[in-house]
Amino acid sequence: MMDERKPFNRRWLWLGVAVIIVAVYFTVHSLTREHLPVRAAEVSHEPLASTLSTNGKVEPEKNYEAHAPMAGIVKTVYVQPGDLVKAGQLLLTMDDVQARARLATAESAVKAAQASLESTTQNGTVEQRQAATADVARNKLEREQAQRDLDALVKLNASGAASQSEVAAARQRLATAEANLHASSISVESRYSAADVTRARAALADAEASRAAASQLVAQTAVRAPFAGTVYSLNTKSTEFAEDGKLLLQLADLHHEQVRAYFDEPEIGKLAVGQKINIKWDAKPTESWHGHIERTPITVITYGTRTVGEVLIHVDDVDGQLLPDTNVTTTVITSSESNVLNVPREALHSENGKSYVFKIVNDELQRTPVVIGTTNLTQVAILSGLKDGDWVATGSTNGAPLQEGIPITRVR
Prior knowledge:
Number of helices: 5
Strand order of the largest sheet: 2-11-15-13-12-16
CATH architecture of the largest domain: Beta Barrel
Radius of gyration: 50 Å
CATH superfamily of the largest domain: Efflux pump adaptor protein, beta barrel domain
Shape: rod-shaped
CATH topology of the largest domain: Elongation Factor Tu (Ef-tu), domain 3
CATH class of the largest domain: Mainly Beta
Helix content: 25-40%
Strand content: 35-45%
């Protein structure tokens, strides 16, 4: 009986020893565990500006595109990309043989239309008017002769020397002569109707329009700068064939530029004319330019996969370095506060729509609910939950998650 109780007591003894060892292990581990290295930031009052950033494209306020006015050979190019040119300076010329041939044809058509209108309004050409006058004179003579013949036959008929049928035939010849005289008289006075004159005037207007177009075409074969600026794009060269409408070159005043920026639809309500803009270009990361909103969106459009509003930004400090059609990043200050309690944005956490931070208390993390206000890309305003001088953790240096109650070591 005693032998059976001894193994049983030994088992309980070993179990108790194991429990004690585990308890000691966890106690020692909890007292000696490594502190979590965290980055910390002090809560303080500082100026805070709320900003929005988006992409945009630089474009000159004054831009000129020269297109080929017709298919043909580029005769001579006088400029190169980057050249500064004066207003009126000759930039390139195209072979104008075809254009001048069109102009000659159009001028001939104008002269023909002018002659036609003159003939219509003056009742015919000189030859036609002379012929009509001669017809009237001849018809007058024929009518007078027919009248004399009729008078003679009437007298003869009264004496029985002429028959009644002869008198009737004479009357018919007189009527025909009078009709011919009437017709020729009308031809002298009004050969053409009002509708004929209207058609002639319309034909002249069409011919003059064609001449103007042909004249303009000739002028366009010599491309001149409409204003002083910089040739920033050249898409042709001498002796090259250019199809009708091809873009030949682009000229801009690089001292007057704007940015067309694309803000997402939910952000449009925060924008206003006059708001300050900061402009960055990846090609020159150490430089920045400044501007202001000149026009807010008047509608929304689809831009790739985004629904955006177009904003026109006037560049205030243009220095000729921002090139047209370059892609830039624009940042607008939508609101600003001069003295507000704030923390770095990376210190802020959210769960179920509620914000909180990990405040550092006695070198341990304490989860602290906060109410936030204005937010920008780097800072967030704290309306309640923290006070000036508090410290918060912004993250661990080893990638471990932040948890309440963990002992920490501050790392700058």
